[in-house]
Amino acid sequence: MANEATKTAKLSIEGEATIELPIYAGNEGQDVIDVGKLTSQGYFTYDPGFVSTAACESEITYIDGDQGILLHRGYPIDQLAEHSNYLELCYLLLNGELPDEAEGKLFVDTIKNHTMVHEQLNNFFRGFRRDAHPMAIMCGVVGALSAFYHDSLDIDNPEHRRITAHRLIAKMPTLAAMSYKYSIGQPFIYPRNDLGYAENFLHMMFATPCEDYQVSPTLARAMDRIFLLHADHEQNASTSTVRLAGSTGANPFACIAAGIAALWGPSHGGANEGVLNMLDEIGGVENIDQYIQKAKDPNDPFRIMGFGHRVYKNYDPRAKVMQETCHEVLAELGITDDPILEMAQALEKIALEDEYFVSRRLYPNVDFYSGIILKAIGIPVEMFTVIFATGRTPGWIAHWNEMISGPYKIGRPRQLYKGSSKREYSAKT
Ligand code: CMC
Hints:
Helix 6 (158-184) packs antiparallel against helix 17. The protein is mainly alpha-helical. Helix content is 49%, strand content 5%. It has helices at residues 77-83, 86-95, 101-113, 122-126, 134-144, 158-184, 197-206, 217-229, 237-246, 252-263, 271-282, 288-296, 317-332, 339-353, 355-359, 366-377, 384-405; strands at residues 7-11, 19-24, 32-33, 61-64, 69-72, 75-76. The mean pLDDT is 94. Bound molecules: carboxymethyl coenzyme *A. Carboxymethyl coenzyme *A (CMC) binds at residues 233, 236, 267-269, 271, 295, 303-310, 360, 362, 365-367.
């Protein structure tokens, strides 16, 4: 879509002619200054960490970090969490509008038709050590899907892109549960299409061939919410990775595998696992002060996991919903005096009142409570980021699809070079 400039920025560089740069307005949020023609004037922009850089135009998700607002296709996340469900949100992210009844039913049926993975894929798992981290397995097996679905790899064909989107959303929970079963030495459990999406995931995680697993509706709803709250988050590190990989024309399975790798880091999706490990390390409410001091010490790399966000400088709206869900789950399971939850609540209270956190506008993020819910459901800590990846899949695909559907260029940033200037080769004696 061609943009029309609403204003012009003037960049005056000492001793040189002023450069005029067009400014474009979005429907919400900050305007952007188009710096594309700076290269021809002999300059690059410099913005490590992309703090002030809009890398693309998008219609999928909007975040106002100061107000704590998150909209998917215009709908607020708290309304979606209350009235919608994960698969409906997947449809919305992919198609731009909510489905009517018939469209919704067709979408759910289609996803159910794709939940099984190729039997040959089981052999991939057997190549991993039993103690491999499930995210390591996921990076491998999701990338490997491109070796199985040759029939839908033409990225310029919208029908191929649609089938791939359905396959990925349907197969991610199956692969996620397989990576868990493999790590504990239990047989893989096949998906059951009479169950809902989250229910089926819990079934594949916890049933065995000898014993069925009765899924509690409260836990299935909590699981669905966890997927829903992670479904998309604008141009975060993993989504940007998917877009960058996709900009080369790479196939979607390879791009999503790249997104999974980026998500694994503790500053991104790995933080939910980090929260539980941190609470374990703190050990008790009496030690919280000591850890708050560590977090505030500029010479100590320790950070309170699950606190702070690049975009939210207010309470993360997803964390609010997650906190409510957490209470529902603990009540359902009859957990009233969980020491981990007690620590989490004490930590949250202290941090929200502490000048260091208040002045830096560091609030709990989505990962702070999701880990506690997952632990209560019985999901092992190493699986937390895998569940984040499963939930984030429709967001990654929607962004990849949006990019591929329009005109796009290969992503190729430049640099400020600080290395040696040209020098003549001379062997060291
Ligand atoms: N604990 C203690 N201090 C912190 C924390 C924290 N969790 N987060 C930021 N700070 C401090 C940081 O040291 C810096 O202080 P100073 O100004 O004195 O140097 C200031 O706050 C600004 O931090 P920053 O690192 O410049 O902020 P950023 O936008 O680059 O980083 C972040 C954002 C999420 C990587 C960071 O807040 C963090 O590491 N948080 C803990 C990990 C975490 O919970 N990540 C999950 C993010 S939400 C899920 C997702 O979307 O992936």
